[in-house]
Structures are given as structure tokens and as C-alpha cells.
Design goal:
Strand content of chain A: under 5%
Mean pLDDT of chain B: 94
Strand order of the largest sheet of chain B: 6-5-7-8-2-15
Oligomer: heterodimer
Low-confidence stretches of chain B: none
Order of helices and strands of chain A: HHH
Number of helices of chain B: 9
Order of helices and strands of chain B: EEEHHEHEHEHEEEEEHEHHHEEE
CATH superfamily of chain A: ACP-like
Largest sheet of chain B: 6 strands, mixed
Shape of chain A: globular
Strand content of chain B: 25-35%
Mean pLDDT of chain A: 88
CATH architecture of chain B: 3-Layer(aba) Sandwich
Largest sheet of chain A: none
Number of domains of chain B: 1
């Protein structure tokens, strides 16, 4: 199982995701990246993320994504 | 708003697709986007092949071609057309209506009603509601030809990877008429104009007429150069709109009709991309076989034409020789979202032709 930081790095290798508190506002993830990230998280952690959970707030920073994963029963 | 129609039916569906096919792999270089990320998107969203018109082709060209095909094959008698409804956001002209253009080019009878309605991705369901309403209230209207279609390839920036790679051009022709059998059709429609800017062509109307300035392509910070003359979409807003509004709409419709998700044979939804449809199906516990999502990968997203194209692509023989309880679901610009539950089948024709 890959770490979240590894998944993000694969999607946008040019950014350091530990340095930002708002990936969306900082232009590090756009809406297509979020979709790619959702697909990667579902595959990697064997979870299902509902369409209504695919909102920018849930992918804003590492903490927000951790919270989302925890809600889906993933130990991070 | 709940609506009910009695003794009405769809009797034929024809999809007219431009023969010109583009491949996403060949187009990837046009976008300011790394190839590896494009390939990931291709896999998730279903980008693959799409059809777009040659320069200069309009909605009326595809519609006239399709109607002539039906006349020549004896599948539709021009004298029986009492109303011609065109649902499009890409009219041939601001004036006259495209429906009148089609009527004139085909020299159809004067004793008929031509009407254009400005709707896009929800336009198939909206058009059916309007057509069934005409059949209900006007005794002299016995057969309505509903034309859905858009030529958005001519209204989008070819450098805008948020919208251009998924656009397909198409027109569909749907014949609707009275049903000799007792049948009930349930529909539900909702609108929210406060979110109108989520899908928009800012310039071209009187609010902002087209000018040299509105034709200038600019990057507004998302690396997708586009002009004010171009179609633009707030992808996140549209995705969230569909995921939050469409499932309750379908649930409300099915509750009103007194049927469950399991009772419905097919959910024929507007086809923006594969990911969005998969998420809808998952949320509503609808088996993927019941909700086709392969229109974008084969032909692109052709706005209000995708529902009839999905029917012709996946269910042609079944719909010509049988009947199924189908839920049609459209959503898009306006914002507009609408669904209809009807018995679809025993069609005189259900096919795709190339223009």
C-alpha cells in the first residue's frame, strides 16, 4: 500500500505537498488531478469515495485528505 | 416539478454523427499538459475517439440529412410532421429559429409548428416534456419531431483541455406521437438560474456582443486559454451539482411513479464523462449494465443528443423488438436537471448514421 504522499507525488511530481495548506488555491491540484487522486485512493486503499465527497474541501491539504480516508476506515 | 403524461410514446430514434473522427491520443499535444497526465485522464474519464463536424457545418445540416434519410427509407412521412422542435444552444442563426430553417430546407408543409428551445445537456428530457405537452393540449398535433443537437466544437477553444477533448458534435431525431395503448409517463424537472455561470458562453448575446476583444484567448489562471466567445465550464461545480442533485431527483421520480431502482431496466443518462456516470451509478446502487457510459469514449459528449445516442448505440435491437422500463436523465446548463420514466421500445427505427 502506497503512502498518501507517494500517491500525490505520482500525480504532480513537481510539487512538495508538505509545504502547502491549500493544494487547490496554490494551483497544485486542479479538478482533473482531484479525479485522478480519487481513483488512485480508491484503488490503493480499496475504498469507495462517494461523488458527493468529491469536493475541493476534502482535498485541500494533507490533513483534509487524511480525514476523508479516516472516515472511510483507512488507518493513516 | 412533477409532470405526468398519458398515452404518449417515442416511436423512433435516429442519431446523425459527423463522419470526421478525432483521437484523443493524437490531440494530446494541443494541450499544455504532460502526456502522462493526459493518459491518466484518458483512462479515468473515457476520452478516446470523438466525432466533430467539418468547418462550416451547422445543426440544420445534420438534421436535414437525417430527416431526408428517414423520408427516403420510408420511416417517416414528411406530411405527418405537425411540429418540429429543435433543442440546441448552437443555432444556425440568432434569427430565424433553426426549426424554421430545417422546415424551409426540406419544403415541409406550412400547416405545422416550428419551435426552438434553448437548452443543452438536459435538452432531450426537456424536449420530450414539451413534445408530450403539445400532443396533450393541441388535438391537431399528432406527430412531433424532436431534434436535439449541438455543434460545440465550433464554440470551444481547441486549447482548453477542460472541455475541448470531450466535445462531440451530433444531432438526434426523435419521433413522438400518441400511444394507442394506455401508458403513463412520469417526469420531474428542476431549474436553478442562480448557478447559471457554471456552464456558459459569455459573449454572443446582447449582454456581451461578439467583438474583436471577446475573441481574444486568455489564460485565466487554469492553463486553459479560452475567449469570451467560447464555451466554458466550471468542472468542479458541475460535478458537484450532478452528484448532489441528480440522485434525489431520480429517487423523487421513482417514488412518484411507485417503482424502485431494481424495477427499472435502464438508466439512460446524459453522458458527460465515464467517471461522473460511474460515481452516479455507485451512489444509487445501479448495476453498470443498466447504465451505459460509453458514449463519450466512442463519440464525445454531444450535449442533449447523448441520451438518444446511448439508446441507439447500446440498445438498438432490443428497443426495436421489445420494450423496457427506462429512466432518462438529463442535466446541464441553466442549471437544469430533469428525469423521465417511460416504457421505451417497439421503435420503428433506432439507429446511427454518419453524415
Amino acid at each position: 500500500m502506497k503512502l498518501l504522499s507517494e500517491i500525490l507525488q505520482e500525480i504532480r511530481p513537481e510539487y512538495d505537498f508538505s509545504s502547502s495548506s491549500d493544494f487547490i488555491a496554490d494551483g497544485m491540484l486542479d479538478s482533473f488531478d482531484v479525479i485522478t487522486l480519487v481513483t488512485a485512493l480508491e484503488k490503493n486503499y480499496s475504498i469507495f469515495i462517494s461523488g458527493t465527497d468529491i469536493v475541493p474541501e476534502n482535498f485541500q491539504n494533507l490533513q483534509a485528505i487524511h480525514t476523508l480516508l479516516t472516515q472511510h476506515g483507512v488507518q493513516v | 416539478m412533477n409532470l405526468t403524461f398519458h398515452r404518449k410514446r417515442i416511436s423512433g430514434i435516429l442519431a446523425v454523427l459527423p463522419a470526421r473522427e478525432l483521437s484523443f491520443v493524437e490531440e494530446m499535444k494541443n494541450y499544455n499538459f504532460p502526456e502522462e497526465r493526459s493518459r491518466k485522464l484518458m483512462e479515468v474519464m473515457g476520452y478516446n475517439k470523438r466525432r466533430i463536424v467539418e468547418p462550416g457545418v451547422c445543426v440544420s445540416d445534420l438534421a436535414v440529412f437525417g430527416l431526408r434519410h428517414l423520408f427516403e427509407k420510408g420511416l417517416l412521412d414528411p406530411l405527418e410532421i405537425d411540429a418540429l422542435l429543435v433543442i440546441s444552444h448552437s443555432p444556425d442563426y440568432l434569427m430565424p429559429p433553426t426549426s424554421n430553417v430545417i422546415q424551409g430546407r426540406l419544403c415541409l408543409k406550412h400547416d405545422m409548428l416550428c419551435l426552438d428551445i434553448s437548452q443543452a445537456c438536459a435538452g432531450f428530457v426537456i424536449g420530450l416534456m414539451q413534445g408530450f405537452g403539445m400532443l396533450t393540449t393541441h388535438g391537431n398535433i399528432r406527430k412531433v419531431v424532436l431534434i436535439n443537437g449541438d455543434i460545440f466544437s465550433r464554440r470551444a477553444s481547441s486549447k482548453d483541455r477542460s472541455i475541448y477533448p470531450l466535445i462531440g458534435d451530433a444531432v438526434t431525431i426523435t419521433v413522438i406521437e400518441q400511444d394507442a395503448e394506455e401508458s403513463i409517463i412520469h417526469a420531474n424537472v428542476k431549474m436553478d438560474g442562480t448557478r447559471r455561470e457554471a456552464l456558459m458562453i459569455p459573449a454572443g448575446g446582447l449582454h456581451l456582443p461578439c467583438s474583436a476583444e471577446t475573441a481574444i484567448e486568455q489564460d485565466e489562471g487554469d492553463n486553459n486559454p479560452r475567449a469570451k466567445n467560447h464555451l466554458r465550464m466550471d468542472g468542479s461545480a458541475i460535478f458537484n451539482f450532478v452528484q448532489s442533485e441528480v440522485p434525489p431527483l431520480i429517487e423523487e421520480l421513482l417514488t412518484t411513479a411507485g417503482v424502485s431502482v431494481e424495477n427499472v431496466d435502464y438508466f439512460l443518462c446524459h453522458q458527460p464523462n465515464r467517471f461522473m456516470l460511474q460515481k452516479l451509478a455507485e451512489k444509487m446502487n445501479i448495476a453498470s449494465a443498466k447504465m451505459p457510459n460509453n458514449v463519450v469514449e466512442n463519440f464525445g459528449n454531444s450535449s442533449g443528443a447523448t441520451i438518444p445516442i446511448a439508446a441507439a448505440l447500446n440498445l438498438s435491437e432490443q428497443l426495436k423488438h421489445g420494450e423496457s422500463l427506462s429512466c432518462l436523465v438529463g442535466y446541464g446548463g441553466g442549471l437544469t436537471w430533469a428525469a423521465m420514466l417511460l416504457r421505451l421500445g417497439n421503435l420503428k427505427f433506432c439507429e446511427i448514421v454518419d453524415f
